Amino acid sequence: MPQRAVVLLSGGIDSSTTLAVALQQGFETYALTVDYGQRHRRELECAGRIARHLGASRHTTVRVDLRAIGGSALTDAIPVPLDRSDAEIAHGIPITYVPARNTVLLSLALGHAEVVGAFDLFIGANAIDYSGYPDCRPEYLAQFERLANLATKAAVEGRGTFRVHAPLLRLTKAEIVRRGAELGVDFSLTLSCYNPDDTGRACGRCDSCRLRLKGFAEAGLRDPAAYVTQ
Ligand code: ZN
């Protein structure tokens, strides 16, 4: 019997590649998408298509409306920063930070895992080509893993030990693109943009688009996503 893993799947290239890695490692995968009221709603549709394309055993969407909290350009009426330079993206924590997002997402993944009998949680966090979010750092993920083993009935009763896997943590965006391509991820199904237009085309100008385009360029691959401008 393959071991089960819960994989957080947003619909972007990082989480899609993470799902492909979990499958390659032989896990029976339970993909989990969280509809937190993100303005880039189309990524939720992408997540479902990717889960089917890659062969997740199950795909579940949980709704937790973080618009009630706000405080982020992704969930509130705050403009998404555009056209920032690599140096600007690398410095500080931008307004696209969603308060405590990865803690919310991992907590939901943990609860789902406890119910389906999984002890392995996968998240596409990355601490190299990223936007400086504090909940993407390795020390944060290590602490969440400790918490998971303190906070759950499954761990306290000794049925297993939770592990948080972040297989992309130390990869550059170019390495993530290459890894995903090797594992057969169809990147035309993914959407990374924080600010897509009504037809789902990426803006090419937000931090997420800029990191993605830089990753494809450095990997020497063509990005199959549709862009408004390029
Ligand atoms: Zn964009």
Describe the 3D structure:
The protein is of the alpha/beta class. The chain has one domain (4-191): HUPs (Rossmann fold, 3-Layer(aba) Sandwich). Helices cover 38% and strands 11% of the residues. It has eight helices and five strands. It has helices at 13-24, 42-54, 86-90, 101-116, 138-151, 153-156, 173-182, 207-219, and strands at residues 4-8, 28-35, 58-63, 120-122, 163-165. Strands 3-2-1-4-5 form a five-stranded parallel sheet, sandwiched between helices. Helix 1 links the parallel strand 1 (4-8) and strand 2 (28-35). The N and C termini lie far apart (47 Å). 45% of the residues are buried. The mean pLDDT is 92. Bound molecules: zinc ion. Zinc ion is lined by residues 193-195, 202-203, 205-206, 208-209.
List the helices and strands and how they pair.
Layout: E1 4-8, H1 13-24, E2 28-35, H2 42-54, E3 58-63, H3 86-90, H4 101-116, E4 120-122, H5 138-151, H6 153-156, E5 163-165, H7 173-182, H8 207-219
Parallel strand pairs: 1-2, 1-4, 2-3, 4-5
Helix pairs in contact: 1-2, 1-7, 7-8
The structure holds zinc ion.
User: Span from first to last CA?
Assistant: 47 Å
The CATH architecture would be: 3-Layer(aba) Sandwich
Strand content: 5-15%
Task: Examine the coordinates and then state which fold CATH places here, giving the name of the CATH topology.
Answer: Rossmann fold
Shape: globular
Q: How is the quaternary structure best described?
A: single chain
* Overall pLDDT level: 92
Q: Quickly count the helices.
A: 8
Molecules bound to protein:
zinc ion
Count of extended strands? 5
- How are the strands of the largest sheet arranged? 3-2-1-4-5
- Secondary structure category: alpha/beta
State Rg: 17 Å
Q: Mind telling me the CATH class?
A: Alpha Beta
CATH superfamily: HUPs
The main pleated sheet reads as:
5 strands, parallel
User: Percent of residues in helical segments?
Assistant: 25-40%
